[in-house]
Amino acid sequence: MLQQYLEVGKVTNVHGLRGEVRVQPWADSPEFLCQFKTLYVDEAHFPMTVERARIHKNMVIIKFEGPTDVPSALSLRNAILYIDRADAPLPEGAFFLADLYGLEARDAATGEILGKIADVLTLPANNVYVVRGGARELMIPAVPQFIAETNVEEGFVRVNMIEGL
Predict the structure, then answer these.
(1) How many CB atoms lie within 10 A of CB 21?
(2) Is 19 in the same domain as 54?
(3) Which region, left, alpha or beta, applies to residue 74 given φ > 0 means left and ψ of -120 to 50 means alpha?
(4) pLDDT tens digit string along 28-47?
(5) 95, 103 in Cβ contact below 8 A?
(6) Are residues 10 and 66 in the same domain?
């Protein structure tokens, strides 16, 4: 079951005097966060309307409807922001990292189940899938050389096992 709400960033502080907040984006690019008209706050997924959003030094400055001064904006500090999956259509074949957790990792050649994706490390060169199964843990680079297929709908990834992996 795919999650309806996906984490996209964290409010780190207030920006200026008019109720804007500074958000650390957890997306491929800060521009992604600027496209949403509604963001959801914390696990209660309280909806907040975005009046405007802009990028400033790899952070996103957001002005929500409501907070108009520093004290009211401070109440959002450290809040985790979410989007509704329905508000973020993806190109064909694309997926959210959150959809990978728990997927079964299978050997592309033999079909053997290697374990499940327990974590995704977002490293500068590429993402790395941490697969745990039984007593072993595999670190698999998320590049076409290693990942033969990602099938979120059916719940698996097929991995090209290479000597030493």
Answers:
(1) 24
(2) yes
(3) alpha
(4) 789 999 999 999 999 999 99
(5) no
(6) yes
Distance (Å, whole) CA 9 – CA 71: 21
CATH number, domain with residue 135? 2.30.30.240
The answer on pLDDT for 165 being more than 60 is no
| Beta carbons of 128 and 139 less than 8 angstroms apart | yes
pLDDT by residue (tens digit) across 148-164? Answer: 999 988 999 999 988 76
Burial 36-72 (b: 16+ CB within 10 A, else e): beebbbeeeeeebebeebeeeeebbbbbbeebeeeee
The answer to whether residues 118 and 80 belong to one domain is no
Cα–Cα distance, 140 to 56 (Å, whole number) = 34
Question: Biggest alpha carbon distance in the chain?
Answer: 60
Structural domain for 101, as ranges: 97-159
Mark whether 105 and 83 lie in a shared domain.
no
